[in-house]
């Protein structure tokens, strides 16, 4: 994005105004609108070892002005889901045509009515937002997108939007819960850390065939056997099953509780993250389902 464009969009997203100084005209126009933007990686491919800011070449000051940031990656899992969806649509051509489908006209009227509602925060919902924001600030170490006071405004806006969808005059705790789920989903999908790597040194006079070299690289990189890796995987998934209400797990606490070397756990979770089973930052494991 051009520097001048960045300056202009900063004003729009922060002040909700546009300043014009052209052809002898000096004025300020209101620009109260929602901003939906999309960006491609600067190098044509998203590098999960780099931050979001690096990949899209946008600074924190601009990214934090967006309430939600979604990262859409072209993975094998997505390809499988898309192909299944397309095949299901073709295979389901003879489905019952008497399904209850909301007409576009009714849907438009619903949206127009919802936009006119001005839900008010209740004391309980305001307290829940305050506590949730404080917890996010405490846990914000290592996040790619900083948790700033703008996040507090984001939670209020999202909670209010959910209340409007319910056509409610008040923002209740259930609305805050849904807003937090959505925000946490985008937050976790915006968290990456650089994968640790170790250099493999093979002397020129050493004689290795291709298979032996691959085995040496695997052993040097992981530093653990397959049996050890399976044991750590079982510990991770057992924790997830026993704490299904939690969406993240502390790597340090998991290592201390099970008396495992923390670097061994990091090696395993890095491998899981590379296969899109989980996401990790410096301190936590984030489960995607």
Automatic annotation (TrEMBL):
This is MCM3. Transmembrane segments: none annotated. Belongs to the MCM family. The lineage of its organism: Eukaryota, Fungi, Fungi incertae sedis, Microsporidia, Hepatosporidae. Residues 1-81 form the MCM C-terminal AAA(+) ATPase domain. The keyword Phosphoprotein does not apply. GO terms for biological process: DNA strand elongation involved in DNA replication; double-strand break repair via break-induced replication; mitotic DNA replication initiation. The gene is MCM3. Keywords: ATP-binding, DNA-binding, Nucleotide-binding.
């Amino acid at each position: 994005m051009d520097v001048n464009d960045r300056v202009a969009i900063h004003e729009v997203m922060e002040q909700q105004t546009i300043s014009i100084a052209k052809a002898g005209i000096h004025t300020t126009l209101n620009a109260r609108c929602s901003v939906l933007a999309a960006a491609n990686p600067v190098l044509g491919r998203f590098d999960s070892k780099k931050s979001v800011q690096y990949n899209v070449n946008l600074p924190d000051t601009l990214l934090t002005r967006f309430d939600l940031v979604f990262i859409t990656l072209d993975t094998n899992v997505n390809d499988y889901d898309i192909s299944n969806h397309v095949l299901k649509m073709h295979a389901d051509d003879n489905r019952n045509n008497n399904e209850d489908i909301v007409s576009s006209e009714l849907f438009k009227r619903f949206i127009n009515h919802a936009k006119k509602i001005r839900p008010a925060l209740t004391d309980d919902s305001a307290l829940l937002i305050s506590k949730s924001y404080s917890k996010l600030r405490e846990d914000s170490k290592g996040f790619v997108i900083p948790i700033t006071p703008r996040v507090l405004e984001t939670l209020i806006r999202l909670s209010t939007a959910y209340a409007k969808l319910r056509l409610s005059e008040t923002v209740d705790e259930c609305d805050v819960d849904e807003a937090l789920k959505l925000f946490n989903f985008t937050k976790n999908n915006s968290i990456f850390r650089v994968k640790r790597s170790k250099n493999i040194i093979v002397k020129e006079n050493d004689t290795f065939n291709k298979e032996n070299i691959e085995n040496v690289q695997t052993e040097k990189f992981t530093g653990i056997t397959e049996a050890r890796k399976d044991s750590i995987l079982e510990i991770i998934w057992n924790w997830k099953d026993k704490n299904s209400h939690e969406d993240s797990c502390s790597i340090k606490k998991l290592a201390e509780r099970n008396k495992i070397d923390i670097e061994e756990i990091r090696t395993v979770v890095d491998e899981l993250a590379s296969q899109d089973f989980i996401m990790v930052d410096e301190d936590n494991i984030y489960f995607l389902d």
